[in-house]
């Protein structure tokens, strides 16, 4: 079985956000898969997807602080006509990545105990974000 749909995540403030439940809730067909894979592709170049800590929110704020220090907005970027946060957002997106491939078993994502799907919103006003979710399995 193959199934594909677009998920639109609600607009979020700049930072890292746990979006596992938002994604799973948008995919009722996930429950039909006994063994398979879920591929997620974020259709944006100024945000990212990653798998990380799903419990302690200070990990997400520490990650945001790390990227603010190491990819500063006040660097002399040539690409600046969309705002000071745009080029740093592109860099962060490239570092973090925009896709995940996750195993599915018995209708559920197979994640580690402390793993969750994060959206890295790298713009101050990024807006709603679209993810193409592709399910493959039986």
Structure description:
- This protein is an alpha+beta fold.
- Helices cover 22% and strands 38% of the residues.
- The protein has helices spanning 20-25, 57-70, 86-96; strands at 2-9, 15-18, 35-42, 47-53, 99-105, 108-109, 115-121, 129-137.
- The radius of gyration is 16 Å and the shape is elongated.
- It starts with a strand and ends with a strand.
Termini gap: 6 Å
Average of the residue pLDDT scores: 97
Q: What is the percent of helical residues? A: 10-25%
Structural class of the helices, strands and pairings? alpha+beta
Q: Roughly how many Å is the radius of gyration?
A: 16 Å
Count the beta strands: 8
Order of helices and strands: EEHEEHHEEEE
Largest sheet: 5 strands, antiparallel
**Oligomeric state of the chains?**
single chain
Broad shape: elongated
* Strand arrangement in the largest pleated sheet: 1-8-3-5-6
Give the low-confidence spans. Answer: none
Q: Please, how many helices?
A: 3
Strand content: 35-45%
Write the SSE topology:
Blueprint: E1 2-9, E2 15-18, H1 20-25, E3 35-42, E4 47-53, H2 57-70, H3 86-96, E5 99-105, E6 108-109, E7 115-121, E8 129-137
